[in-house]
Amino acid sequence: MSNIHDLKYLQDNIQDLKDQGVYRQLPVLEGENGAEIILNGKSVINLSSNNYLGFANHPKLKEAAVKAVEKYGVGAGAVRTIVGNMDIHEELEVLLAEFKREEAAMVFQSGFNCNAGVIQAITGKGDLIISDELNHASIIDGVKLSKADKAIFKHSDMADLRRVLEEKRKDYNNVLIITDGVFSMDGDLAKLPEIVELAEEFEALTYVDDAHGSGVLGECGRGTVDHFGLHGRVDFCIGTLSKGIGVIGGYCAGKQVMKEWLSHRGRPILFSTALPPAAVMPIMEALKLLMSTSEYTDRLWSNAKFFKEKLGKLGFNTGESETPITPVIIGDEAKSMEFSRKLLENGVYVSAIVFPTVPKGTGRVRCMVTAGHSEEQLSKAVDVFEKVGKEMGII
Ligand SMILES: *Cc1c(COP(=O)(O)O)cnc(C)c1O
User: Is the shortest distance between the CB of 366 and ligand 1 below 6 Å?
Assistant: First the structure.
């Protein structure tokens, strides 16, 4: 007789994953998440992190974290509305607003919980949310938490967005259009200028989640809204502090009144402990570094260009990316996984991304080139791609 505590239903689910060939172990990293890492005990070139600027292991950020611990301790000790709101949280938000060229910014504990908290706070019954079909999982979950009605438009399809607006706008109070700024699987940009035009034509609000644009696009990494020169026309500018910025956290930048509202109705602000000091101070250091020089973003883009061109010349299909995200599209799911496995055997770590994360038949490995890579490391990675690609008949 099986015991209820054996969790047989989960064991069955796991067996299903194994039968489908999609069960996996978590890779284990020893040490920093840099350009070269120790993975499962072996030194490899890392083309899988979101550490775009090398800030996750930057000496100045590490120093800031140590100082923060010495002065403020390791935890904020409470939610911000009780007694967890330290002077450094306030300072960070002033700096972020300056960086984003917006009136104000509200910081969250992660990009994920920012979406989970903000969307439900700024929409309600009688409103409509219109969301790009490829939006990030945290947006999908955030939308589920809202009492507003929902509609989806085809990925970056402006005719379809117009169709939804024409059909539905009149039936609702507020309409909120939500899109990723950069789509992380293909590296394509949202058609923000068109989205903003349509939103203004139909008196809708706009919400851009720029997780992969922050620290990457725009002047010194200010993001997609800055890249397109749309300041003041995107109402809710979401970003993460966990990717390009290298630490942890999320934020919503925009109007002061947005911030005031979120400090009353943003549930992660009210019910989850504030960011720890050792996160807050290195984030500030990162923002100051970014605003003082374009060195980091320049190196990111030149590294990405170098790598993309080399792979393209070898005959790999690198898709339609407009950002440093470099997909190498293989097609077949099992072949994509095998390609990733063989690259790793040869000293290059690039994770495979397959259905259901991307559509069936578009399996790929996704290369994340960073400012932290040396040309030598990237050249070495290209050589490995060539060797394995030829062995497997991909090129
Ligand atoms: C990564 C990502 C998030 C989550 O950010 P975290 O800070 O890692 O929680 C949210 N939205 C998008 C579009 C992302 O790519």
Answer: no
